[in-house]
Specification:
3 helices, single chain
């Protein structure tokens, strides 16, 4: 069964939010921070740190 990545991320995000119940501002900060770091000069450093 092939599931698109965007659908899997939505399902995991919704389940995680319902089970853990973090504050909404924390979710917004993490999403915005991840989006901004993805195109920054720190992206290669983060990528190598995650893939090791």
């Amino acid at each position: 069964m092939d599931v698109p990545l965007w659908l899997a991320l939505i399902v995991v995000g919704v389940l995680g939010y319902k089970l853990i119940r973090p504050p909404l501002w924390l979710v917004a900060v993490m999403l915005l921070g991840g989006f901004l770091l993805a195109d920054s000069f720190l992206a290669p450093v983060i990528d190598t740190a995650i893939n090791k």
